[in-house]
Design a protein that fits this description.
Blueprint (H helix, E strand, L loop, with lengths): L3 H19 L4 H17 L1 H18 L3 H7 L3 H16 L7 E6 L5 E8 L2 E6 L4 H12 L3 E5 L5 H18 L6 E3 L6 H8 L6 E5 L2 H10 L12 E5 L5 H13 L8 E7 H7 L2 H8 L3 E4 L10 E2 L13 E7 L1 H12 L4 E5 L3 H10 L4 E4 L19 E2 L7 E2 L6 E8 L7
Parallel strand pairs: 3-4, 3-6, 4-5, 7-8, 7-12, 8-11, 9-10, 9-11, 12-13
Antiparallel strand pairs: 1-2, 2-16, 14-15
Helix pairs in contact: 2-5, 2-7, 3-7, 5-6, 6-7, 10-12, 13-14
Length: 418
Amino acid sequence: MTDISAEMLRIGDAARTAATELAYASAAHKNTALLAAADAIHARTGDILAANAQDMAFGTAKGLSPAMLDRLRLDAGRIAAMADGVRAVAAQADPVGRVLAAWDRPNGLHIQRVATPLGVIGVIYESRPNVTADAGALCLKSGNAVILRGGSESFHSATAIHAALVAGLVAAGLPRAAIQLVPTRDRAAVSDMLRMTGHIDVIVPRGGKGLVGLVQAEARVPVFAHLEGICHVYADGDADLAKARRVVVNAKTRRTGICGAAECLLIDRRFWEAHGGILITDLLAAGVEVRADGDLLSIPGTTPAAPDDFGREFLDMIIAARIVDGVDGAIAHIRAYGSNHTEAILTENDATAARFMQRLDSAILLRNASTQFADGGEFGMGAEIGIATGKLHARGPVGAEQLTSFKYLVTGDGTVRD
């Protein structure tokens, strides 16, 4: 592609035109498109797997880590889950047109605050090809047009999945430009998207610290983002041992390359005195490299932690660990090193759990549950377009409902203002 900027403007114009039509598209039309897209994803499993094989070869040659290759890899089960996620989005109530509030004024005016689409959403993502389906489905459900820019690693997979989404749009008679994929690996397209204030209403970056930091630093378009997923698990002195052992291993090892993977284990000194290093030995037995300090270094197999291991997103079979003095010690550590993404407390003490959840301000706080649940699908949203850790407009998993704004509808009866 020789003139990327011209192509991006063409894509932006088409998206803006499609957005005006989607804003009043019926729930039935949108759901028809989503269900047809899910069927197309399933029917094209072979094509998507063949495309993914090209991407896996590209990623391997590029030297991607095992965790990043796991993010990139598709199999029949993951493709089926992708299609099921699109169907789950279709099954949700339509978020557009919801009456969020209504009231009457003494002057006779009746006022409603009603949910409306944002307009055009730009999604910039790296190696996870399923984001193509998740983002496309959620934007369509919420009446938004979307411009998708996948990473170079997932280019072929994203293209194959996008074709299935377009098939859904065509089946429902909705504009093909409602879901567009940037047709180039060239990074210049990203720079253009970040400056397209006349075409894109919000940018959602999905990827590592480098990508998200670049977007936040250079975007002239508003951004929903989290910079890092530095997720903590705190084992309190009143934790149930069996629950703690199960949750800690799952939080770290289920999938290490996702933003909800635990990156730091904090152990209350009372837990350490009662149970020793059992949580650490469980992690070591699971193949995790444990970078520890203090008394935890007495456990065979641990590695001395460097100062920057705390507050680091490993996205790998590595975890930082240290002993803290009670819940306040855990809170102080998380405030110092966390990224306001997701934290978990393991405790049977209601007051301690309440203190942890009240005094921390992360987007997601869990009790006696794995941080791997930091996912819009697990929250019942069908899918997520990302997890936002900021405090404006959207926070936590961003689903279809979070991709709406609102307008005021005011009705009078010849009413005039004095």
